[in-house]
Fold this sequence. Notes:
Blueprint: H1 23-41, H2 46-57, H3 72-91, H4 97-119
Helix pairs in contact: 2-4, 3-4
Amino acid sequence: MPRQSxxxxxxxxxxxxxxxxxxxxxxxxxxxxxxxxxxxxxxYDEKMVQYLDLVGKIxxxxxxxxxxxxxxxxxxxxxxxxxxxxxxxxxxLNLDRATEVITLIAFNKLLWIQNDLINRHYQA
Length: 124
Ligand code: HEM
């Protein structure tokens, strides 16, 4: 519900009237889309590691809007969704079996690292 950093549009009036098509939810989905694009386009250098760490931190008051503190249970739930989306995408590429297996293993490893780079910002 609170305004997120970088968003200048309308704020939802109440949680009850908030829909998936609301401008602010669309904005949030664009961030998630850009994150997924980044995972498969940017080089895995120091800057990338800092970005993956910021993605974890920005959901707590320690980065971005201090008014936002996304519960860890929801972060984990969305990680589950992202994981399934990546698996389905990879399986849909019709890669040869050996490439498919190493690609699945690589993204699985990446998501566990992202998981750590989320969790560490939730520790007291
Ligand atoms: C797999 C888990 C998630 C990923 C990968 C993700 C990705 C992102 C990214 C890339 C940003 C923008 C960072 C930037 O400015 O470049 C962001 C911001 C944000 N996300 Fe997520 N997100 C996740 C889970 C969630 C969940 C579960 C919620 C809410 C229920 C949420 C709400 C927000 C909000 C409110 C912001 C803005 C924070 C601020 O302005 O301070 N995110 N997210």
